[in-house]
Amino acid sequence: MDKDYLKRQNRAPIAEALEDYTSERVVPFDVPGHKHGRGNPELTEFLGERTMMLDVNSMKPLDNLCHPVSVIKEAEELAAEAFGARAAFFMVGGTTSSVQAMVFTVAARGDKIIVPRNVHRSVINAMVLCGAVPVYVDPGAHEQLGIALGMTPAAVEEAIAENPDAKAVFLNNPTYYGICSDLAGIVKLAHAHGMQVVVDEAHGTHLSFSDRLPVSAMSAGADMAAVSMHKSGGSLTQSAFLLVGGKTSDASGNDEGGEAAVNRAPQIDPAYVRQIINLTQTTSGSYLFLSSLDLSRKRLALHGKELFDKVIDMAEYARDEINNIGGYYAIGSELINGADIYDFDKTKLVIHTLPVGLAGIEVYDLLRDEYDIQMEFGDFGNCLAYLSVGDRIRDLERLVGALSEIRRHFGKEPLVSLPNSYIAPVVVLSPQEAFYADTEHVGFDSSVGRISAESIMCYPPGIPVLAPGERITEEVLEYLRFAQEKGCQITGAEDSSLQTIRVVK
Amino acid sequence: MDLWFSEFHTPSVKLAIQVSRQLYSGRSDFQQIDVFESPEFGRFLTLDGYMMLTQKDEFIYHEMMAHVPMCVHPDVRKVLVIGAGDGGVVRELVQYDCIEHIDVVEIDEEVVRIAKEYLPFTACGFDDPRVECHFEDGLKYVRHHENEYDLILVDSTDPFGPGEGLFTKEFYGNCYTALKEDGIMVNQNESPFYANDARAMQRAHKRIHTNFPICRVYQAHIPTYPSGHWLFGFASKKYHPVRDMRAAAWKELGIETKYYNTNLHRGAFALPNYVQKLLEAMEELPNNDTTNTLGGKS
C-alpha cells in the first residue's frame, strides 16, 4: 500500500459529482420525470427530498454507466484498487447480474463450466441464457449439520481430467454458511489446465478487508469475482461489484514459492467484460445505487479492517454465548479440516438447532413471531444471523437472550439430521436446450430414463437432486422418495407432492 | 436569564422547566448525560434529552418501585436492580435489614459517576456495603443467573435507545428464570395516556403477561413524566400484589416514606377503565403458531 492510498481512497467521485450537481440547482429538462421529486409529492414525502434530488439520470458531469469516461470510471478504478482487482465494474442489477456477466464472459454456447452442485440458481439461469453446460462436482455435505460444503482440489482435478475442454471453474467463496474451498489451490490447478476461475463472492465482500478472514478471490488469483457489496459491505440492496483479476502480463511466470505455477488460462479483457455487461444491464443505472457503491467502497477502504475486526469479535462473542446456553451449536473455526471445509468465514453466525429439538426454520419463525428478531434464513438443521458493519452488541444480546428463552419454552428431545447422499447427475442436455424443449408431464414413478425439465432441490442439505437437462435415474427416484418419507423439504418441483414430473418430450 | 429545559411529550405537547444553571453536560459511550439546577424542581437529570428524575418528585417513582414488592414478598434476601444508575431505588431498598445483597446492573458507568457527583440525594444508596454494581448490559447479566433472586426491579429508561433491550420478551423471560420460585419482578411500565407511550405500555404488558402467571399493573403520579400518569408492572410467580400484601408486618418495620403507604398500595392497583381496557386487550393468549416453510432466501 503506497502512502497516497488512503488519500486516493478518501475520494468518492460519483458522490462528489452528485453533491456538485445538487448545489448547482440545474433546471432538469431530462428524465426522470419526477424532477427532483416535485412531480410526486407523496413519494417525496415517503423517501425524503434528498433521495429524490439524487435520483437523476446520466449526464455530462455524472458520466454514463455504459461507457464510463469520467467520474464513474474514476470510481471504478478506486474500487478495483480497494479490492486488489485489475478492473472493477459498478453493477446495479444485483449480484445476480455480476454472476451472469461472469458466466457470459467465460463461456459461449456449448462451453463447459465446472461448478459445485450447490451452485446458486443464478448460475444455472445464466447458462439457460448463454447455452453453457455445467460439469458438476460433489461439494460434500456435513452429516450432523446437514449443509453442503466446499469443493476439494482433488474433486476439481478429477472433473478437469474428465473434461479437459472445460473453459472455467466456478466457486462460491464462501458459501451462505461461511464454508470456503481451497480457492488458491483450485486457482492454481485450473490455471495450469488453461481454465479460468470465476468466483461467486456474494457472501464474501468483507474478505478483501481483513487478514483474520479466508482469502479473497482477488488475492487468490481468480480471474473474476461477483461481490455483493450490499450484503456485508453496506451499500444499497441491488448494488454490486464485478471484479476482474488474474495475471497482468507474465503468462508463464513462477509464483513466489518457486514452484512452477503456469497460468495457461487466457487473460480476461475488461473491455470485453464491459461489452458483456452492456448486453443485459440497464442504460439508466440508478445514481442512488452508484453513489452507495462509491461511498461504501470508500468506507471499507479507509476503515474496513477495524469495521470487520469488530464484526468478527461480535460474531465470536455471540458464538461463545450461544454455545453456553446449551443445546445450540454455533459453528466456528473448529470445523476446518483442510479439505471440504478448507476455511471458515468467522463473521457468519450459523446456529445448529437440532440438539434443542427444533428445526432451524422453527427457530427462525419463533425469533420473528415471538421476539421480533429477523434472521437471514432457516433450513432444516440451522438458522443464520447475518452480521455486518451495521450490527451492535446489544442486538446480539437480544438474540442470545431469545435463543435461551426459546430453548426453555419450546425445547424438545434432540432431533437428528436427515440423510445426505450425493447423486452424481447425468447431464444430457444443456440447461438452455432443456429449458426451451417441448415438455410433457409424466407420472413420477414411470419417469426413469426421461430427461428432467425441472429443477428439484432437497433440504437438507440444499443440493439439487435434478436440474433441467438431466437424466432421471432409478437412484434419483429412490432418493427423492426416501427423502420425502423422511420429511425433507422438496422445493423447485411444479408438483411438490412428486406425483408427476415435467420431462423433455 | 430566561433559560429553559424543554422536552416534547408528544410532537405537539411539551413540558418546559426553567433552568438556573447547567451543572454537567457530557456524552458517554451510550448516551448524552445532562444535569441541571432549576428553581422549581431542584436538580434534575436527563439522558438523551429525556427527563429521568428531579429532586422534587423522584421520591414518588423510587418509593413506588421499591416498597410495593417489599410489602408483598415475606422474605427478600437477594435483589437485582437493573438500570437505576441514579441510585434512588437502591436508597429505598437499603432501608430493609432483611436484604442481604443487592446487585445493581447499569449499562452506563458514567451515569453512576455523575449521580454520585451531582445527585447525592439519590446516589447515597450506593454507599451501603450490601450493594454491588455491575456495569454491563442488563439483558446479558440476567441471562447468566438462574433461580437466584427474590426480587428484580427493572428501572429502565425508555423502549428506545440503550434501554431498548429491557422491554423485550426475551429479557422478561430471562428475568423469570433468574427469579426464585416465589420471586417478584417490578418494572417501569410507561404511561397509558399519550398514544405512543400507551403502545409501549401495552407491548411491555403483553410480553410480561406471557412470561409470568401473575401480572398486574399499578399507577403513580409523577409530575415531570409525560402526562404525569405513570405505570409500574408487578409480575410474580406466586404472590398476588394485593391479596398477599403484609400491611401490618410492613408497618412494623417503621420505614419512613413520603408517598407510599399500605392503603395507597391497595389503591394503586385500582386502574381507570380506559387503562384496564388497554391492558386486557393484551392479555389474550399469544399466538404460538409457526409455519413450517423455508424462511429467507434459498
Distinctive features:
heterodimer, A: 505 residues, alpha+beta, Aspartate Aminotransferase, domain 2, Aspartate Aminotransferase, domain 1, Ornithine Decarboxylase, Chain A, domain 4, 3 domains, 7-stranded mixed β-sheet, 4-stranded antiparallel β-sheet, globular, B: 298 residues, alpha/beta, Spermidine Synthase, Chain: A, domain 2, Rossmann fold, 2 domains, 29% helix, disordered C terminus
Q: How would you portray this structure in words?
A:
The complex is a heterodimer of chains A (505) and B (298). In chain A, helix 6 (94-106) crosses helix 11 and helix 13 packs across helix 14 (393-410). Chain A folds into three domains: 5-10 and 66-300, Type I PLP-dependent aspartate aminotransferase-like (Major domain) (Aspartate Aminotransferase, domain 2); 302-410, Aspartate Aminotransferase, domain 1 (Alpha-Beta Complex), CATH 3.90.1150.10; 431-504, Orn/Lys/Arg decarboxylase, C-terminal domain (Ornithine Decarboxylase, Chain A, domain 4). In chain A, 37% of the residues lie in helices and 15% in strands. Chain A has 505 residues and is an alpha+beta fold. In chain A, the strands form six sheets. Chain A has a seven-stranded mixed β-sheet, sandwiched between helices. Chain A has 16 helices and 20 strands. Chain B is an alpha/beta fold. Chain B folds into two domains: 4-53, Spermidine Synthase, Chain: A, domain 2 (Roll), CATH 2.30.140; 58-280, Vaccinia Virus protein VP39 (Rossmann fold, 3-Layer(aba) Sandwich), CATH 3.40.50.150. Chain B contains ten helices and 14 strands. Chain B has helices at residues 58-70, 88-93, 109-118, 120-123, 138-143, 169-178, 195-209, 247-253, 262-268, 273-280, and strands spanning 4-10, 13-18, 21-27, 32-38, 42-47, 50-54, 78-83, 101-105, 131-134, 149-155, 179-188, 214-221, 229-236, 295-296. A seven-stranded mixed β-sheet of chain B has the order 9-8-7-10-11-13-12, with helices on both faces. In chain B, helix 6 links the parallel strand 10 and strand 11. Chain B starts with a strand and ends with a strand. The model of chain B is unreliable at 285-298 (pLDDT under 50). Classes of the chains: A alpha+beta (505), B alpha/beta (298). The interface between A and B is medium-sized, with 35 and 27 residues. Strand 14 of chain A pairs antiparallel with strand 14 (295-296) of chain B, so a sheet runs across the interface.
